[in-house]
Amino acid sequence: MDQIAQFAPIILMFVVVFFFMIRPQMKRAKQEKQFASELKKGDRIVTKSGMHGKIIDFSEKQNAVIIETGAGKITFDRSSISMEMSQKLNAPVKEKK
């Protein structure tokens, strides 16, 4: 019994780290993977580097998307598309009173 009480703070620390750091990160990664798999032609996106564009085609062989910007067509990896910024870009605009 004394040995369990000795390791209890360490075990508690691992539980806290799991629920406050690891689990939310796993949940976010799952959401980003789902977002990337649900992309379709015509979606307006923002890359993590800040490039705005519209998806015009997919390259399944390279796991990439081809986007159209003001400068022309550019190919990006699916992982470089920012989920947060793309959702903000496509969110309906709220009217101010």
Describe the structure.
Keywords: Cell membrane, Membrane, Protein transport, Translocation, Transmembrane, Transmembrane helix, Transport. One of its GO terms (biological process) is protein transport. It holds the Pfam family YajC. Belongs to the YajC family. This is Sec translocon accessory complex subunit YajC. The protein is α+β, with helices and mostly antiparallel strands and 97 residues long. The protein has 2 domains: 1-38; 40-92, SH3 type barrels, CATH 2.30.30. 45% of the residues lie in helices and 24% in strands. The chain has helices at residues 2-37, 83-90, and strands spanning 44-46, 52-59, 64-69, 72-77. A 4-stranded antiparallel sheet has the order 1-2-3-4. The radius of gyration is 21 Å and the shape is elongated. The termini are far apart.
Defining traits:
about 100 residues, alpha+beta, SH3 type barrels, 2 domains, four-stranded antiparallel sheet, elongated, Preprotein_translocase_YajC
Order of helices and strands: HEEEEH
Biggest sheet record = 4 strands, antiparallel
Query: Approximately what portion of the residues adopt beta-strand conformation?
Result: 15-25%
Corresponding CATH architecture of the largest domain? Roll
> What is the level 1 CATH name of the largest domain?
Mainly Beta
Mean pLDDT: 87
Helix/strand structural class = alpha+beta
* Number of H- or I-type helical stretches: 2
The percent range for helix content is 40-55%
Low-confidence stretches: none
Overall form:
elongated
